[in-house]
Amino acid sequence: MRRNKVLSIGAAALALGLTMTACGTTKEDGKGGGSDAACDLKLAFFGPETGDAAGLGKPIIQGAKLAVDQYNADADCKVELVKYDSQGSPDAAPGLARDVVGDESIIGVVGPAFSGESAAAGPIFADVGVPTITPSATNPTLADNGWDTFHRALGNDATQGPAAARYIKDTLKAASVFVIDDASEYGAGLAGIVEKDLGDAVKGTDTIQQKQTDFSATVTKVTSAKPDAVFFGGYYAEATLLIGQLRDGGWDGTFVVVDGVKDPAFLDAKDAAEGTIITCPCIPDTDPAVAQFAKDYEAAFGEAPGTYAAESYDAANIFLDGIGDGIDNREDMLKFVNDYDEKGITKQLKFDDKGEPADVHVYAYTVKDGAIVPEGEIK
């Protein structure tokens, strides 16, 4: 990582006896606003720590925490990671965003985690100039709002949706598909893309609601249509119940879902979940590029990295690289992030003028023998 280069340069400079402050920056060195400010910096996690979507928030929190803990192990001035628990709710997002911008020691946000809360909080961050890097919010329209502060560390649904449709057509060779969404900005957006790309293969559509538990009406529509595959745009809480009720209703086709379902809680569906295909713009923890990260993560948290832990680690490290360079204010950090172009563990980390990543990949996973197993990149 680039931060390691910065630290090695700093160590060499100290060895040469250069005069430096305890924090490594001064007002005169052109990097920051003073050593005192540089010693009181924070990064924020913005997303679900509790609630129905907490399972998706946990690995994002832990990925960012690992990056901060590793940075602090070698730093004279520690960086604090503070958590703003949105519970994944767009309604809670504006108030939390105002809390973030009110703490001027926060110079970067890892998140918001979900698309709906990103849309609600984005204007507030943009108005004040707080740079954000989401490791998981994938709705394409987020990059079309003109927010200079918005950045995304993964491919959006305009890449995941076509990849999912391609997998359904080319790999599953499904002749008929039923498309379901959960009415969220994220789920409905993805379902719309997949429906468009599949064209005449779509034999029916339906919309459910988040927190819904009885899907009997949807099950009736699906079993009547008799599709080879069902595509679901939404999150794991509903997907877990939906696939169980579809199997109980007699449907035996292939269930295809997206990254919002890639959580161990989906495996609570047990045998009903077997064979489910999950698409995700998240790198598998078996990839050689993330092998050391996965080892460090498991040592720190006692479990393998979950969905978007690695992307969160990369996002946090971009901010930490800036802090390592002596940046201690939002304005300079925003410029640093906008200009960033370094190798991360998940990809080359570089953003276009809309905040989208320059390097995008989408992967397929399958549920096999009670585990979520990577199949490989969808080309």
Q: C-alpha Rg, in Å?
A: 22 Å
What is the helix content? Answer: 25-40%
* SS summary, helix count: 12
Distance N terminus to C terminus? 27 Å
CATH class of the largest domain: Alpha Beta
Overall number of domains: 2
What share of the residues does DSSP label as strand, in percent?
15-25%
Q: Tell me how many strands there are.
A: 13
CATH superfamily of the largest domain: Response regulator
Query: From the coordinates shown, what is the CATH architecture of the largest domain?
Result: 3-Layer(aba) Sandwich
Residue stretches low in confidence (pLDDT < 50, at least 5 long) are 1-37
**Backbone structural class:** alpha/beta
Which terms summarize this structure?
alpha/beta, Rossmann fold, seven-stranded mixed beta sheet, 16% strand, four-stranded parallel beta sheet, 379 residues, 2 domains
Protein described:
By secondary structure, this protein is α/β, with parallel strands linked by helices. It has 2 domains: 220 residues, 3-Layer(aba) Sandwich (Rossmann fold), CATH 3.40.50.2300; 124 residues, Response regulator (Rossmann fold, 3-Layer(aba) Sandwich), CATH 3.40.50.2300. The strands form 3 sheets. The protein has a 7-stranded mixed beta sheet, sandwiched between helices. Strands 2-1-3-4 form a 4-stranded parallel beta sheet, with helices on both faces. Strand 12 and strand 13 form a beta hairpin. The chain starts with a helix and ends with a strand. The relative contact order is 0.15.
